[in-house]
Design brief:
19 helices, mainly alpha, globular, 62% helix
């Protein structure tokens, strides 16, 4: 594993509010990613970025949304730093893939994407166990429901170097489903993936993030017992549509559960199920924004578009006296994407997902291990994206993992024949 690149990933994932004078360190990821990218400048080839044209277009659209945002808390300097960090990551990450790809696709993925983030998770666990307190440590956010089933009563944990429980839970969930697939289906790196499972589950139990564990298990079972037995994957075309139709399904299922005794055992209150944990009360006014066309809907309002448009003021009451409740996002990936990056963003996002599906089908019989990983990732993003915002910077760092896995997929899809030879050599 590349030490410099791992340091860059660590610096990217850290919540600098947890560190005294941390704002000074926000430039660190940019410096480290530029060092990663420029250390092999003699090996550059302009064609390296040809396979990722579509992800690059989406990245530039996201950057445009950041720079043009009307959110008053975002200073011009902050916007520039945010965009530079984002684009330098994409630049360095792409270069890093090419540095490792000749050793095998799975090797490159494990060492470029998987291990650096798992080590960051482990670092947070170690810091928590030795008693390191983050900036939010004194804020009580209730007891862990899942651990209470085992007779353990502890407060939900905010890990030291990250911001937000749901945000961190979503990031861990992606790593957990990949870990499950790696350990339970893929035949190499089993110990690495097992360590990942242990670290992820330990973290999710303490944050009491039930959704990521549930979705990870569902996706793992689906891949292992259905797709792994298929010569050609079926029904993949449905996956990108989940963000559009999923909210209707979720509300119907939760309202049904609210009428059963089982529903009470998996929710923190009766209102959780009746309103989808408040989602329904957010989605109705959020959708109403788009019932009448406005020119801003084409490219969006920029980052925090739900607030800039004024719509989030219609659902802030749900969060009572919670600080900054007027900025709370719509808790749905498609809605947030539409507010921030408009219909153009939604279309581009959807095209990329269908391209990923095309790649999965293309490499299904030649690089099955990578196909499993890409499938588990796209399933998780879309399932969780029904009730959470899995795109943008609302959930710290999830967007980086989105681009990391998808850029990897685009490069592999472009060089299928080369990857096929490497995969055969690795298994032999």
């Amino acid at each position: 594993m590349d030490t410099l690149f791992s340091m860059a990933i660590f610096s990217l994932l850290v919540n600098y509010d947890a560190i005294p004078n941390g704002s000074v360190l926000r430039v660190l990821p940019i410096i480290l990613f530029l060092l990663v990218g420029f250390r092999d400048v003699v090996k550059w080839d302009s064609r390296m970025f040809k396979p990722i044209i579509l992800p690059l277009m989406l990245a530039f659209l996201v950057s445009f949304g950041i720079l043009t945002s009307g959110w008053e808390k975002s200073t011009e300097l902050y916007k520039v730093f945010k965009v530079l960090t984002f684009l330098s990551f994409i630049f360095a990450f792409t270069i890093q893939i090419y540095r490792n790809i000749n050793k095998g696709a799975l090797y490159a993925f494990v060492n470029t994407v998987y291990k650096p983030i798992i080590l960051f998770i482990v670092l947070n666990i170690v810091m928590y166990l030795i008693g390191f307190k983050g900036p939010y440590d004194e804020e009580s956010i209730g007891k862990t429901l899942m651990l209470s089933y085992f007779g353990i009563s502890v407060d939900r944990v905010r890990f030291p170097l990250v911001a937000g429980i749901n945000a961190y839970g979503s990031l861990i969930g992606i790593l957990l489903v990949i870990s499950f697939v790696g350990w339970g289906i893929i035949k190499i790196y089993k110990k690495t993936f097992l360590y990942g499972i242990i670290a992820c589950i330990f973290t999710l139990l303490l944050t009491d993030s039930r959704g990521p564990i549930f979705y990870a298990l569902i996706i793992f079972c689906l891949i292992k017992f259905f797709y792994a037995k298929s010569k050609s994957p079926r029904f993949l075309w449905i996956i990108p549509l989940l963000g559009f139709i999923g909210p209707f399904i979720v509300i119907w299922v939760l309202n049904f559960l609210a009428t059963t005794s089982y529903g009470a055992s998996v929710s923190r209150s009766s209102e959780d199920l009746l309103t989808g944990n408040g989602r329904l009360l957010i989605w109705l006014p959020a959708v109403s924004e788009f019932l009448t066309f406005k020119s801003q809907h084409i490219f969006g309002y920029g980052e925090y578009g739900h607030y800039v448009s004024g719509r989030s003021l219609e659902w802030e009451y749900i969060f009572g006296s919670k600080e900054n409740s007027q900025y709370v996002h719509p808790h749905n990936t498609i809605l947030s994407l539409t507010y921030d990056n408009g219909y153009v963003g939604v279309v581009l996002f959807t095209i990329i997902q269908y391209y990923i599906i095309r790649i999965i089908k293309k490499i299904w019989n030649s690089s099955r291990n990578m196909a499993y990983i890409f499938l588990s990732n796209i399933l998780f993003f879309n399932l969780v994206g029904i009730t959470e915002t899995m795109f943008g910077f609302y959930y710290q760092n999830v967007i980086y993992l989105f681009f990391a896995v998808n850029i990897f997929a685009f490069i592999i899809g472009y060089y299928t024949k080369k990857i096929e030879r490497e995969e055969v050599a690795l298994t032999n």
